[in-house]
Design goal:
Layout (H helix, E strand, L loop, with lengths): L2 H14 L2 H7 L4 H15 L4 E3 L3 E4 L1 H25 L7 E7 L4 H14 L3 E7 L2 H10 L4 E5 L7 E8 L1 E6 L9 E2 L3 E2 H5 L3 E4 L4 H12 L8 E3 L2 H10 L3 E5 L3 H4 L5 E7 L5 E7 L7 H10 L2 H13 L3
Parallel strand pairs: 3-4, 3-5, 8-13, 9-13, 10-11, 10-12
Antiparallel strand pairs: 1-2, 5-14, 6-14, 7-12, 7-13
Length: about 300
């Protein structure tokens, strides 16, 4: 039994919560993954996985094994990077979690990082704020891009300020790409049928607080946890959506849409990278933090975050 491989399979199983999807993510067959987990259970002498017709979670002992597995895999990756990297040429994987509203910025960051250091393999995942915080704490994530107001326990590298827009179908110019319209107040936006993210998303709590500050409450016509659903609902339905500037990048691919800056109040939410506070960082993470503080990158992030000047 390869202990590190077995632990990697266990981490994937907890992450995907499905034997088939975990096996696919690890590029092995489902029976091979199941056999590796059973071998790990036999080696440690405990039951790790609650078994039923489908994956039902980990036992209490399994949670302890998972915590140790995450640390061991992290240390193994740190050692691997140290052995195979050279000065100026870091090598290894870098796990980045991003809240859904910041995914376009995270994607561009990962692309620029890989272009600058082709030995780095970024892995970008869409995660909730809570999942990012948990991932940074248990070392399953190297860095997270999200709402820094929640990240007091982590080292924060500020990136941009999130601006908010009402996305709607344009009254004229249906054959034109995304247009920028005149500003609209939050109170005016509240009178429209809206598609908003679900209440479990942190972005929704920001929007609800903004509407409340404007003296109104909103009962959305549609709720979703999918950004694509929001954009397509506006494109093909009778609703509008409130999106941060970073997500307007996705809307630019469709014709006949209009984005209006929201004012009264002006809501500006800081977004940044968060990393665990430690003196021991991988070569890939050191390189990523260098890029995250690069002036050219920060100017691009500001544009993507909602200034919309490029």
């Amino acid at each position: 039994m390869n202990l590190l491989d077995s632990m990697r399979y266990l981490v994937a199983l907890e992450q995907h919560r499905h034997f088939g999807r975990a096996a696919s993510a690890c590029h092995i067959t489902q029976p091979a993954l199941s056999n590796a987990v059973r071998a790990l259970e036999a080696e440690l002498g405990v039951v790790i996985v609650k078994r039923g017709r489908a994956f039902e979670g980990l036992t209490a002992e399994g949670q302890r094994v998972l915590a140790s597995a995450t640390v061991l895999l992290h240390e193994a990756e740190m050692l691997r990077q140290d052995l195979h990297s050279t000065n100026g040429q870091p090598r290894g994987s870098l796990s980045i979690g991003a809240v859904p509203t910041a995914l376009p910025v995270a994607a561009r960051f990962a692309a620029q990082l890989q272009a600058r250091y082709n030995g780095i393999k970024p892995v970008v995942r869409s995660l909730s704020s809570h999942e990012i915080e948990t991932g940074l704490e248990n070392l399953s994530l190297d860095m997270g891009l999200g709402y820094t107001e929640r990240g007091s326990k982590f080292t924060v590298i500020s990136q941009y300020v999130e601006h908010y827009f009402l996305l709607r179908r344009a009254a004229v110019g249906a054959s034109e790409p995304l247009q920028m319209g005149a500003s609209l107040t939050w109170h005016e936006a509240a009178q429209l049928p809206l598609c908003l993210l679900t209440p479990d998303m942190h972005n929704r709590s920001i929007l609800d607080a903004s509407f409340a500050h404007a003296g109104c409450r909103v009962a959305p016509a549609i709720e979703t946890n999918s950004i694509v659903t929001m954009v397509l609902s506006v494109l093909d339905g009778e609703v509008c959506a409130v999106l941060p500037g970073a997500l307007l990048t996705l809307a630019r691919g469709y014709k006949g849409l209009e984005a209006l800056p929201l004012r009264g109040p002006d809501v500006l939410t800081p977004i940044g990278f968060m990393v665990a506070t430690t003196d021991r960082r991988s070569r890939a993470l050191d390189a990523a933090l260098t890029l995250a503080q690069d002036g050219a990158w920060l100017r691009l992030a500001a544009v993507q975050g909602g200034l919309m000047r490029a």
